[in-house]
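User: Fold this; tokens only.

Assistant: Input:
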Amino acid sequence: DDIGTGWVRGALTIPECADGRTRTYQCADSVPRSECEAFDLKADFFALQSYPDHSAKLRLQLGGADFATTDGMVLEIRDTRLLRGKLSERLAVGPDENIRAGLGLFRRCPGSTQNFQLFGSITFSRFGLESDDRVTGVIDGVEVRDGRSGDPGTVLGYLRGRFDFSIQAGPPYQRFQM
């Protein structure tokens, strides 16, 4: 059973992570930013959730728990129809683009006031929406900026990654409020 493979790595400074302390994952100056792997998201869960309005969320995260309780990157695709004919093309990622990205480090930094804005690009080589379709791509690189300080915020790091997984149809879930 192929659950998928992938990773998200790079360099990152996380302000006010745990106990108000900054956590820093940086490489030596001699290491090119495209090769730095000081920060590792340790993604082992990959999912694509598609919605009737043609939007979708691609999640790369640690474990299959709710995104707000783990470490992960989510790519929100506002309109999947705009991806047609664009396989193998670099697509812009940013707050005002068709693909928006978010980074949550809720497991690593519980209680943090983090708000990351991601700007960069992604390339899909396969992108399906049906059960057993594959979703394969490369996060060519995204700058991570501090979204708390205004636009554009301070650059906190640079991440890149890969993912390749098969869509598994499962029963829909519903969140229950206590």
